[in-house]
Amino acid sequence: MSKKHKIILGVLIALLAMLVVLEANKSQPINWFPSYAKTDKIPLGTFVLFEQLAKNETFTLTEVNQPPFIALQDSLKEGSYLFVNDKIMFDKDETNRLLHWIERGNAAYIAANYMSSALLDTLDISMAVGFVTNTVESDPVFSLTSKPDPDHSYRFNTSIDIKYFDKIDTTSHKILGHIDIYEENDEKNDSLVNFIEIPYGEGTLWLHSMPQAFSNYFILQKDHENYTQKALGYLPKSSNLYWDNHYKSGQTIQLSVLYLLLGNKYLKWSYYMALIAGVLFVIFEGKRKQRSIPMITPLKNQTYAYTQTIAGMYLERKEHTEIAKKQIRQLFDFIRTKLRVNLTGKHIDKEDIETITARSGASAKAVKELFIDIEHILQQPEEITKNELLELTKKINHFKHSIHGRTE
């Protein structure tokens, strides 16, 4: 790497380090996501509420991870069912099962900004959004009517949408709480109903239109835990309290590893730096650092050329008998390998010839003539002629060809 490249790389690394430090020290915006999950410590989580209920000895707290339609199939399950979420959207069948469960003497407490039309229509209730026409922002103020300190109010110090019940059955529904809207000049508007009690069969149903009153942000404000405690004080004591985990906007879900990696700012920037470092390495260090290695042609098999050379020497010297003996030894080795007949010496037995004929598939006449020529050559002391050598070669090749044709 040249000196210039090293300087550029050092500057880039320094800039990346500064960017990571600035990003890590940057203040994070407040997360106002309406989670209402028991594990979330964000403003609109329910970590504080769940911890307090778990410590309360008047209840036996049980978590329910299934939808009510499945959870309430067990007819022996008795107690109170608590729902806290931004939206509680029961379908018709689930609404009927829940109300039938309440009718048998149980209780349900639903705190949600949005409730399903199946539930509201069955109870002859409707919900609306409250707002002030002459201002953009407004803070809600909660108050209870039937508990001690009915005139005491609890202000939610953040502007949020106001949900309330604009239609109820005053003959059977009991109003337990109101919500007021403070304008910018701290003037209070008309009280709106946000908390009601509905007798249903032998049981009771409570509806609260502002689940923010059960969130971490609200409970941790000064004296505000009194409101939440009194609002939940209507639940029957010494009974089972079922905490709903299914209808939660922030319910636990399976996430990919990359999603979790990018969700943490420290891991995210470490991941980015690794990618950038990889790109820089490819740019500056990815070049070849040595000359290309020349291709070496492998050595050729010179056996055939060597054989041709030796054969040419024998032919040139007219040593026909020596060539014939080498061919005969090669034939004997071939017969031993292919036909399992071991031939030795200058004289070949008649039984060996018959065995070779039977196993090779060649004609008896051709085999007999071949071995007569072989015996003649092996026993003849004088040099054979070139024509005799060629004749022997033809007979040997014909014999081998007949055996190969049979085995194939």
Automatic annotation (TrEMBL):
Residues 40-229 form the DUF4350 domain. Keywords: Membrane, Transmembrane, Transmembrane helix. The chain crosses the membrane at residues 269-286. The keyword Membrane applies. InterPro entries: DUF4350 (IPR025646). Pfam families: DUF4350 (PF14258). This is DUF4350 domain-containing protein.
